[in-house]
Please model this.
Amino acid sequence: MRIVVDTNVVFSAMLNSNSKIAKIFLHPKSKFNFYATERLLDEIDEHSEKLIKLSGYSEAEFKRILAIFTHKIRFIN
Model:
């Protein structure tokens, strides 16, 4: 199944790894294909400081978690 995700969905998943959307993203055998525009990465970068504060992650942890989530997304121009 193809699913288009926006920045808010990714923010929510990153901030609460126990949420349903995070579990769907992180499930290793998920049959979902996630799609987003490249703008999603720009928006995450613009709000990264706020996300780090809200999440309590260190900058390195934030980057690692971001990589895990964005690895699951196919980006389209």
Remarks:
- Residues 2-76 form one domain.
- The chain is about 60% helix and 15% strand.
- The longest helix spans residues 59-71.
- The radius of gyration is 12 Å.
